[in-house]
Amino acid sequence: MDIRALLVCAAMAVAAGLVGCFAVMRKMTLAADAFSHVALPGIGIALALKLNPLLGALAALLAGSLLIWVIEGKTRLSTEAITGVVFSVALAAGALTATGEELIDALFGAPGRMSIPEMVFGLAAALAVTGFVLAMRDRLLISLVSSEVAIAAGIGARGLQLGFLLAFAITVALGMRYLGVLLMGSLIIIPATIAKRLARGIDGMFTVAIAAALAATLLGDGVAAWTHRPSGPVIVVIAGALFFLSLAVSGGGGRVRRTEAEG
C-alpha cells in the first residue's frame, strides 16, 4: 500500500472506531452492516456514467441517510426496520445497475494506488466524522438515555440523529474502496463490540475501538500484501480474531452503559 492509501486507511479506521461505538450502544449493529449496502445503486450509476464509483457510493449513502431519517420522523418504525427496507431495495437496485467484475469490486473492494484528490477527500472526510463524534459526544450520550431528556436539555434530537446517520454514511464511503460495501460494516461493528466488552467508560471505549480498528486495518493490509490476498476479507478476519481474543480477556465486559450520560 502506498503512503497516501496508508494515511487514508488509518484515518478511516479512527472514524470507524468512533462511529461504531455509538452504533453499538444504540443497538444498531445489524442495521449498521445492512446500511453499507445502500451504496450499491450509486456505484452502479457512477460506473454507467464513467464516474468515480466513490462519488456514486457517497451520494447514495447520503441520500439513504436522509430517506431513513425522514421516514423515521414520520412513522413509529425503528431505525433498524427502516434500514432493512432501504437496504433490500438498494441491494436489488445495485444488482441491476452493476454487473460482473465491477460488482465484485464494489462488494469486496479493489485497492490500488490512491490519487492526491482521493487522499485529500479521504482525510478531510475522516477528520470531519471524527470531529463530529468528539464534539457531539455528550449530546449523543444523553440522547441514548432518553429523547425526552435530550429535548429538556435543549438538544435537538432529530438533528443529532441526522448528523449521526450522515457521519455513518461518510465512514462507510471511506472504507468502500479497501473493504467493499459488504465488509465495511464489519470494521465499524467489530472493534466497537470489542471495546464495549473491555472498556470501563466511554473514553476507554473510544480508545479500544480505535486501537482495534487500526490494528485490524494496518495488520490486515500487510498480511494481504504478503499473501497476495484481497485486503478487505483479511482485515475483517483479523478484526474477528481480535474479538474472539477479547473473549478470553477478563475485565470490563459490558461496563459501558447508557447511564454514563447522566454523569
Features:
263 residues, mainly alpha, ABC transporter involved in vitamin B12 uptake, BtuC, 0% strand, disordered C terminus
Summarize the structure.
This protein has 263 residues and is mainly alpha-helical.
Topology:
Elements (H helix, E strand, L loop, with lengths): L2 H23 L3 H7 L3 H10 L4 H22 L4 H19 L2 H9 L7 H20 L1 H9 L1 H6 L4 H42 L3 H26 L3 H17 L16
Helix pairs in contact: 1-7, 1-10, 1-11, 2-5, 2-10, 3-4, 3-5, 3-6, 4-5, 4-10, 6-10, 7-10, 10-11, 10-12, 11-12
Structure description:
Helix 3 runs parallel beside helix 5. The protein is globular, with a radius of gyration of 18 Å. Helix content is 80%, strand content 0%. With 263 residues, it is an all-alpha fold. It has one domain: ABC transporter involved in vitamin B12 uptake, BtuC.
